What we know:
By secondary structure, this protein is α+β, with helices and mostly antiparallel strands. It has twelve helices and twelve strands. The chain has three domains: 5-109, Arc Repressor Mutant, subunit A; 110-251, no CATH class; 261-374, Reverse transcriptase/Diguanylate cyclase domain (Alpha-Beta Plaits), CATH 3.30.70.
Amino acid sequence: MKEKITIRLFDGFEILKGGKPILENLANTRKTKLFVAYLLVNRDRPITHQELFELLWSGEDYANPATALRTLLYRFRSMIDKEGAEALDGAIISHRGTYQWNRELDVSIDALDFDALAKAGINPMISEARRKEYLKQAIEMYKGSLLPDFSSEPWLISKSASYRDMYIEAVMAYIEILKAEDQPAKIVQICENALELAGTSEILDLEAQIARLKIANPDAVSKSSVVEYYNEVRELSVKLQDETDRMQAELQEDTIEQQAFLCDYRTFKEIYNLQRRMQSRSKATIFLGLVYVRVDDTSNEDPLYVEKIMTDIVGCCQRMLRVGDAICRKSDTEIAILFPAESYEDAVGVLERLKAASKERTVEDVVVVYRVRPLKSGRD
């Protein structure tokens, strides 16, 4: 009988076989570890080579990203072979320019198990006894931070917040069951543990206060101003949550183009100043690039010759830059871009690649010149 493989994402990253850690060398290779963790967290969809390359080598210049990714996959598979973790054979599937964690693999992943148990426990269509057991297991399984070694990664913040919200919802559902069973001491304990794991929550803090009041004087609770305040806060919290969901649905587009954002100069200026403000409170460095294109059209009879060349170069820039970058036509022959980079040298490298790609797509009578500057922060 094969020993069960479990993967822990909460409060660390660990792969265990029969309860004992394996593949411990994964911790010594940050990129391989991040590669595997990203596929695990996003296991419901295939991840393109481009997305993985930007995650793992943002700002770095590699001639062949696909080869670099294959090297990481080879390292991971070598670790599996070395430690005899046969259950992880075929863990990562490669298919047509994408990688994906194998959803059919017989492994237990704590974050996914927590999510399934919490959702089952919240479901009002099953018996209260079963709901209580599911909620109890989910609450015990949640350990706070998701992959703390990568906690500053933007892609992880949203997922971690989603699990936190699910945890709070599961705790609240469990508390309602404990209220019906008249267990105020248990409620206090649950709330204190939840506040330690999930941080500030006014609702949980008020639930704990009400439970303490009931322990001290059961008859006084129904007349307590704390209860009245709690009821008001809870009602407002529900309304605000619904409004936040509606606002997010209203603001976001159904689909986001997987290329840089093309806009007019006025919008570009607003993005520029917003980036200045953001840069003043973050470590990221944003660069402004200005590309000038000179076209010798004296020998061409097409009146739209220059415009066609510029449209082609703008399209080339839009495809080569990343989703969060911004582009605009500053004038008939100038293109402005905003993009992050690790250093000035990396920023120059981005413009050099754009220049080379642009000239490859046009004719010899086109001259492309660029300049690049880091943005001044809001404090400068």
